Amino acid sequence: MSPQDIFDRLTKELGEDVVFDLHADPKKDKDPWFQVAPAAIARVGTRLKDDPELACNYLECVTGTDYPTDKKIHVTYHVYSLSKKHRVVIKCFCDRESPSLPTVSTIWSTANWQERECFDLLGVTFEGHPDLRRILLPEDWEGYPLRKDYKEKDSYHGIPTTRPNPVELFAIKLPEKPGAGSAEKPS
Amino acid sequence: MTQVVLANQQNDEEMTLNMGPHHPSTHGVLRFIIQTDGEIIRRAVPDVGYLHRSIEKIGERCTYPGFMPYTDRVDYVAAMFANECWAMACEKLMDIEVPKRAQYLRVLSGELNRISSHLVAAGAMAMDIGAITAFVWALREREHINDFLEELCGARLTYNYHRIGGVSFDMPKGWSDKVKAWLDNFEPLIDEFNRLITLNDIYVKRLADVAVITGEEAVDWGLVGPNLRASGVKWDLRKEDGYSVYPELDFDVVVGKGKFGTVGDCWDRFEVRVEECRECVKILRQALVKIEEHPEDDIEGKLPKKLRPDGEAYARVESARGDMGCYLIGKGGEEPYRVRFRTGSFTAMGIVEAKSPGLFIADLVALIASFDVVAPEIDR
Predict the structure, then answer these.
(1) Domain annotation covers residue A187
(2) Which CATH number do you get for residue B313?
(3) Model pTM?
(4) Among B20, B194, B318, B379, which residue's Cβ finds the most Cβ atoms within 10 Å?
């Protein structure tokens, strides 16, 4: 099924306020995508997996992207069907202040770790997730590094996060020749 | 071996063990917190992130061609594929065409790299189980591949060989004959390797029926590549997506058959990797002939004057550890707006917690080894 067909099928079944805004400009969107209302993502996911015509059984990738100018965080789901060989790209636009989505880990188990990663690096909360903890960063890390306005702290538990420029460290300083430099300087 | 009855919960003698992060069998820096009842695991929780270097954030600060060397570090055992994945994502986004010769060079370098990665995987797995000889044997052959790749691109591990729109160097003179000679030498050695370890009775008994993953589970948990194929799912992106010049080449997809136990056990995952080397040899032989049809030094496609794409693309390649995806968003700047790598090892680690209850501690080692995870690919 083409992305247009999938989009039409989903809007017909779930309503235009749940699935909307198809982007399929061949110049820009190499994988056409559409929006899903954040609260309904689990419902759309179940539909995608259970509908025998869609049969999207493989969740490829969950990505969070920060758009501070729009005050939004986009969570993108790349879903693929191993039997039908088509891809669905879904985006959920979350509020940047308190981004929150229902989990899809009950539908695709692989979402478990991918959502944890998204929570870890962008601070998106997934409601109903069985084990929502930081995964790549330490438990006591402050901030969400993949947000565009993230500023690294100077140190973490006394370990500095920056180091001096190695070029400056290893710059060769020639010893001053006796007599040559002192002639110019008035003593 | 998997049918172990958990001890009753009343006389609770549960013990919490720490495994790693510097455990010799964890393939990098990787930690498990294991709750055990004697030798039997009740729950093993992976603790990853020790090698996290925020490759996605680095990507947002590099130019498109400038990010290429960093992608080597996503998976250093098979760096060609991360290179290729990044190049393919950029090419898809900017509509760049890659000359045929460059695509053949990508296939050649990629398949050589796949053999070397599978050799490390098979050798290291045997070593984790306790057979040291196989590892030395595998590394001996891998050394030849390192030499070939060094002649091709100057590096032995982190290649930085691919370019957006092509590759950086053509084959040196006489390289093709050397590779052909080595392939003739290597193919019978696979049988020798099978006699040495794969079909070894002790080894088979140790791994058959251990940590069985069914095909359905494997798809649900997003297992990819050899791990998925070992569970009996015939799924190879080289066939399914038919990217690059793979449709012009003839090869088979190896799947696990459960020869000595159940489909999807540890032995199947081992065997699939060994047999895939044979398919790689097949591909390499054909590619070395077919590459001659295309003019020499036509290895870089035409790039737009400015690499400032606007839009998004998702590209994926069949890496040695399976489906590696790169999701790329550009917003008209010199740097990408967002880079995302989806790797096989990360999703493979996710299933460990679900699969661990009821395994022996020693079998957990076999399970991790059979997944062929590489720690920086988990953590990126």
Answers:
(1) no
(2) 1.10.645.10
(3) 0.87
(4) B318
